[in-house]
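Anyone have tokens for Acetate kinase? Sequence:
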Amino acid sequence: MTETPEHVLVLNIGSSSIKYELLDMTGRHRLATGLVERIGQEEGTLTHRPADAEPYVRHEPYPDHEAGMAAVVRAFAETGLALERLSLRAVGHRVVHGGARFRDPVLIDDEVLRTIEDLSVLAPLHNPGNLIGIRAALRIFPGIPQVAVFDTAFHQTLPPVAYTYAVPVEWAAEHGVRRYGFHGTSYAYVSRRAAELLGRDPSEVNLIVLHLGNGASAAAIEGGRSVDTSMGLTPLEGLVMGTRSGDVDPALPAHLARTAGLTLQQVDDALTRRSGLLALAGASDMRTVRAKAEAGDEGARLALGVYCYRIRKYVGAYYAVLGRVDAVVFTGGVGENDPYTRADSLSGLTRLGIAVDPERNFARSPAERFISPPDAEVAVIVVPTDEELEIAAQSLALVRAAG
Ligand SMILES: Nc1ncnc2c1ncn2[C@@H]1O[C@H](COP(=O)(O)OP(=O)(O)O)[C@@H](O)[C@H]1O
Ligand SMILES: CC(=O)OP(=O)(O)O
Ligand SMILES: [Mg+2]
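Reply: yep, here.
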């Protein structure tokens, strides 16, 4: 018997880009992936990659997300995969900030849209783009269930001691001031895969997971549930990132207002868009930073030192939080591909049972793999994340449950 294919389109939309994947969830394989870049600029680029044909590339202006989405639909049609003929089961959207409201994926309606809009102030690099994309998709795919999958949802299990800031309590009640955490879709996927690789049920394993991409965060996962994570009220707290500072003294904005005359907006903008690797090394992309460091650039060397030192501090902290750690797991573009970051950030931790085997660590491979020595007390594992597959699976499960 041949099964009816179940197609899900996944959209991960930023302020000037649309990343998408079309998955056939029956066989769990990708039919196409793609990216529209530089939306709103004079010339944009669409790169569409069908699974079984040459990439389809277009250079043309995409004045807004609607135009970008229309170009995506066209790219599918011109490469022989008309979306309307596939009868999509769902469109799954990555939404970064869901506040305390969403523990699970939801079908998008006007009220959900309003809540995502209200939360935009807490994720200014992410939610506004997510919203524009959702609205465009609602118009382009009328009648197809649209599902929001939130980065914050997986961290709704954080205990009060981990999510409470020691600040005036009315800020929490009136302004939602607490820690939320992000990259949850990635943590859900990666922690389940890590448990499988360890041959144990997720409820039995304690993990420290390091999601190191453009945005970067760490999470302590106890028995499959997130109990602490390094991002907080917004995706600015915690580790050093491409353009974000991560942890700083909270007195910094007031200090700069008094001494440099900067406005709060200017400081916020600098900490979000002009800090991190970009500030210290002059580049936000890890590959460029590594190349500069190898060429002797002192700023790039310091940036890498600060980046890895911050990760090591969080690993130590989460070891203390968990008490027992079965594995440290690396994921995200940097975590999956940069053996130097993995080695540096776990150096000096042998007393905790954490070590990286140089040969395994430097072996080039895109696959899931152990990089700790064979007899290590704590496993160190690389697990390529797949947020799109997780979003598609969660979206389909919701649509099926909704009948
Ligand atoms: N081979 C590599 N070595 C070091 N860093 C890499 C490598 N490949 C990708 N990266 C880094 O991964 C980061 C992007 O991670 P990714 O998870 O793709 O980002 P995003 O958060 O946008 O999804 C960039 O800093 C990039 O330089
Ligand atoms: C929440 C977040 O930081 O996401 P990204 O890594 O995609 O920027
Ligand atoms: Mg990512």
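The longest strand covers residues 29-37.
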